[in-house]
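Postdoc handover notes: sequence design on the structure in folder B. Input tokens:
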């Protein structure tokens, strides 16, 4: 692989979303981002834990099937592969997070299995709920940039801890409710500025508004906002935020203007709302998403 560009390290949970109709869909926000990046043509190495069980084998098989990098996949000797129970209300998901999963406990020295230099480290907050902090520090040390995707799932977070985790990141993404949780003392219109300052965010804060679209805020006060495009054939919003993050990473990598990144990320997120779950094996889905993007 000599001469190939460094991978993005995508660290966090891989799990199965279990729906009330019995359907089980492979997911987890960081895993979805790694999958999307791979399918969109960006080098990505997912870092996370699976169990020594049938679900863990299924994760590995699905990754092999589309040619994903499996170097970062740690097989935990005792804990099970992650599971989340999903219920939908008018298409919007709510989640029941199961404790004690393989993704909660990846040893710090697992970092030695990974590329020595990464263009970017992406991580969320859920996989840091009970551990993995030393591993995170090692991954940060070998990455040029850091993108944090805030993923607050009650009761698995502490607001002050999350603020510490995002401090100094290049890009932070969160939704409107998460911004309110992290800056409850500030009026909604002022929260992006307050969070940029309090967390010393270097490049941008992305705030998503669900069906209301999203906004990107820079530390110098510039910001861009756009509505969500209409979705023809809506199924559910599972993975829409992960889809947005994936394109935001590609935009950062390729130095797209923020307004361009915002439009492309919203469009891809809307397309993911036509899937059940967050991803698909179908390469044509991703080719369609990127057809108007410039070619390197």
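Designed sequence:
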């Amino acid at each position: 692989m000599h001469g190939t560009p460094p991978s993005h390290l995508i660290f966090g949970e891989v799990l199965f979303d279990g729906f009330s109709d019995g359907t089980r869909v492979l997911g987890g926000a960081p895993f979805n981002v790694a999958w999307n990046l791979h399918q969109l043509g960006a080098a990505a190495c997912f870092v996370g834990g699976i169990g020594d069980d049938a679900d863990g084998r299924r994760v590995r098989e699905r990754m092999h099937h589309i040619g994903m990098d499996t170097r970062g996949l740690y097989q935990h000797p005792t804990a099970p592969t992650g599971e989340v129970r999903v219920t939908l209300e008018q298409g919007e998901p709510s989640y029941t997070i199961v404790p004690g999963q393989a993704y909660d406990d990846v040893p710090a020295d697992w970092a030695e299995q990974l590329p020595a230099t990464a263009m970017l480290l992406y991580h969320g907050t859920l996989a840091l709920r009970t551990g993995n902090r030393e591993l995170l520090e090692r991954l940060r040390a070998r990455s040029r940039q850091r993108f944090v995707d805030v993923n607050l799932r009650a009761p698995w977070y502490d607001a002050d801890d999350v603020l510490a985790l995002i401090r100094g990141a290049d890009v932070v993404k969160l939704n409107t409710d998460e911004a309110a949780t992290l800056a409850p003392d500030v009026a909604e219109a002022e929260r992006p500025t307050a969070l940029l300052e309090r967390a010393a965010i270097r490049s941008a804060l992305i705030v998503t508004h669900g069906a209301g679209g999203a906004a990107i805020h820079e530390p110098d006060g510039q910001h861009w906002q756009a509505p969500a495009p209409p979705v023809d054939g809506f199924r559910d919003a599972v993975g829409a935020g992960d889809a947005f993050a994936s394109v935001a990473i590609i935009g950062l990598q390729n130095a797209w203007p923020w307004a361009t990144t915002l439009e492309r990320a919203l469009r891809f997120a809307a397309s993911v709302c036509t899937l059940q779950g967050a991803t698909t094996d179908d390469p044509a889905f991703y080719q369609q998403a990127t057809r108007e993007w410039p070619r390197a």
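Context for whoever picks this up: The mean pLDDT is 92. Don't rerun without checking with the PI first.
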